[in-house]
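Narrative of activities, Objective 1.

The group set out to show that a structural description can be obtained from nothing but a protein's sequence at a throughput compatible with the screening campaign. Below is one input-output pair from the validation batch, recorded exactly as produced.
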Amino acid sequence: MTVQALLVWLVVGAVAGWLAGQIVKGHGFGLIGNIVVGIVGAFLAGWLLPGLGLGLGGIVGSIVYAAIGAIILLLLIGLIKRV
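Output recorded for this entry:
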């Protein structure tokens, strides 16, 4: 993995985590936490969404995928914290 690819991953993760934190109120984790949530969310969405027939390409598609995955992840974390 090149430095440029790593930077793109971090930016996509940060944007997706921030978007998820804005949509799911009360579950933001700061910049580093949002990057982690966005990257984990991207993996989660990459695993779930193709099975549903949803396909998006490009950088915007990557951000949308990661944001959807991060939202799912934040909702799961919120459910676990309530229990």
